[in-house]
Amino acid sequence: MNNLMRVCIALFCLLFLPVFAQAQMSHPEQVEDVAFSADGKLLASISATELKIWDVESGALVSTFSPGGGRVQFIGATSDVLIQIGRVVQRVSAKGELIRTYEKSSASTPAITPDASAFVITEPMGRSIDLISISLETGEIIERKQLLPVLQAKSADFHLAFTRDGSSLYAINSGELRIFTGGELVKKFLVDEKDLVNALVIGKTNYAYATKYFNGNVALGGDPAKANSEYETSGIHQYFDVALNPLDESIMAVASYTDILLYGTKKGKPRKAKTGKEYNRCIAYSPDGKFIAVGMGLTREQKTKESAVKLFSADKLKLVKVFLPPKE
Q1: Can you list the positions of beta strands (E) in 8-60?
Q2: Is residue 291 part of a domain?
Q3: Which of 242, 156, 260, 173 is nearest to 202 (CA)?
Q4: Peptide bond into 18 cis (omega under 30)
Q5: Which residues, 6 or more positions from 91, have their beta carbon under 8 angstroms from its beta carbon?
Q6: pTM of the predicted model, to two decimals?
Q7: Closest CA to 209 of 194, 5, 30
Q8: Is residue 143 part of a domain?
Q9: pLDDT at residue 7 in the model
Q10: Which end of the chain, N or C, is more open, meaning fewer C-beta atoms within 10 Å of its C-beta?
């Protein structure tokens, strides 16, 4: 082999092999959401065009369902997931089979009740924003009631989440956090003047939220009245998603740019780990608190249109595996 050929091979490897290495990724576009099953054995990831279910232990692809959407949640202790495609809500099995398309469209993120019997959405109706409870099994409307007058909300797009015992519903809209108990508004707080809240998580004792874009905020606490002043952290980061550690709710994981950030209720700099060149779009803790899954998007430097789902150890923030479909 002459020197010219060696130089050509070296240039080929330098220029093209990184692209080929990137081409085998988890999804054909940025990942919008990730979620673990209740037993921690399955991981769901969703992009705009497809939903994928993965086996956590082996990393194998279990199923693929199209189209995808923006949100995914496992339904209670089952292996079924609830996905949101635009305003359409669907139930899909772990085998990738469509079980039901629900007739009511939703501008809000559906919140599944703790007993996994129903989910709630919001809908504008005349002069009010209504809260609609829908049976997961039959798709029938169980209850419709006024959440608040329509003039008190800039839109019907809410981030909804139940407390673990189901006694209260948290709803963020227009930068305001409202807490409803027994269908009645009991507390209201201004959490973000810019109306950019894009993640809300409720645990047993604490809750967390994040605001996106530049100079975003994250908050963690048990008392919404104090969370802004005591637990808020500002910076030049973009915060795309948050997750509470199920074993210690004084710790939250945050998806931010190309980092995982771990914040606690005490002030101070977060622990962080670089996840790669892609943006972290979504994040979730495994039920046993041992792992953190992140779904990634694209950076401007990337030439491919694909993106990854990665698993990290929660204690050391070390990469455990990348979930990859089988090679064709």
Answers
A1: 31-36, 42-47, 51-55
A2: yes
A3: 242
A4: no
A5: 75, 80, 81, 82, 83, 98, 99, 100, 102, 136
A6: 0.84
A7: 194
A8: no
A9: 46
A10: C
CA distances from 142 to 94, 116, 170 (A): 26, 14, 20
Nearest to 271 by CA among 299, 233, 240: 233
Query: Residue 24: pLDDT above 60?
Result: no
Pairing assessment for the beta strands 168-173 and 239-244 based on DSSP bridges: unpaired
Of 23, 25, 72, the closest CA to residue 307 belongs to 25
The neighbour count for residue 244, using CB atoms within 10 Å, is 23
Contact indicator for 221, 191 with CB cutoff of 8 Å = no
In total, how many domains does the chain have? 1
User: Per-residue pLDDT tens for 103-140?
Assistant: 887 778 899 999 999 999 988 888 888 899 999 999 99
Here the CATH number for the domain that contains residue 67 is 2.120.10.30
- The token duo for 2 is 């002459």
Lowest-pLDDT range of 15-24, 154-163, 291-300: 15-24
Q: What is the pLDDT of residues 253-282, one digit of tens each?
A: 888 878 898 887 665 677 888 887 778 889
